[in-house]
Amino acid sequence: MEQTLSIIKPDAVKKGVIGKIIDRFESNNLRIAAIKKLQLTRCEAETFYAIHKERPFFKDLVDFMVSGPVVVMVLEGKNAVAKNRELMGATNPKEAAKGTIRADFADSIDANAVHGSDSLENAKNEIAFFFGAREIC
Ligand code: CMP
């Protein structure tokens, strides 16, 4: 069993597809071990995405992530990190495989509907960023 962090980004929250995205996870054996809706502060978004701070898209990414509420979740299941990334599809929705979350719900590489941890180590850090142990069931 693994755990990974998923974020439903402001574009998908605004579109009203939180339930449809959660259904993709639950229908594919990823259990919701923790969930909350929140508005990121600029400082929180900058810290969460600090690994990208030298990239040219960093400011746009942070601007977008604070543009509205997000839903953060801990997904749990067999090979959860890889499974979640498979369900999300490629970062750029134009390159995402048919039937993936980004192909179906995302508009652009910035407004790409979801974030998912890219490794088990990052998953542990990203989960700890948003959730205390008592919030994960
Ligand atoms: P995410 O998985 O949340 O991780 C970083 C985000 O930066 C990514 O999804 C995209 O939304 C955004 N981004 C914008 N431009 C790029 C790019 N050229 N390469 C990777 N990520 C990008």
Automatic annotation (TrEMBL):
Subcellular location, principal: cytoplasm
Nucleoside diphosphate kinase-like domain residues: 1-137
Subcellular location: Cytoplasm
Keyword list, A-Z: ATP-binding, Cytoplasm, Kinase, Magnesium, Metal-binding, Nucleotide metabolism, Nucleotide-binding, Phosphoprotein, Transferase
Quaternary structure (record): Homotetramer.
UniProt similarity note: Belongs to the NDK family.
Protein name according to UniProt: Nucleoside diphosphate kinase
Originating species: Helicobacter japonicus
Gene behind this protein: ndk
